[in-house]
């Protein structure tokens, strides 16, 4: 496992929520492929990590689930609830603060761009 995978692991819920905010609704495999595409293969989310995260966020009231029949099979789509939208905004703010602080620590002479 790549060392950076550990860094990503702590951000998995935030990554999922941001993707759902941008795309409306997505199914599990679609989420894993979108992350792989966006990061040019640098980040791979396994089903073993994804589905427990999705189920936990659903139980916390951040996600709604919609069932849809696609090619004769039932597909489960996830989308943000109203609370999920608020939580995503909060997490993005926390993440931006974290990145800004890390930039300050790692490169104190560089001013953050946001």
UniProtKB/TrEMBL annotation:
**Positions of the Transcription regulator PadR N-terminal domain:** 16-88
What is this organism's lineage? Answer: Bacteria, Pseudomonadati, Bacteroidota, Flavobacteriia, Flavobacteriales
| The protein, known as | Transcriptional regulator PadR-like family protein
Organism of derivation: Paenimyroides marinum
Could you tell me the superkingdom of the organism this chain comes from?
A: Bacteria
Matching entries from InterPro entries are given as:
Metal_resp_DNA-bind_regulator, Tscrpt_reg_PadR_N, WH-like_DNA-bd_sf, WH_DNA-bd_sf
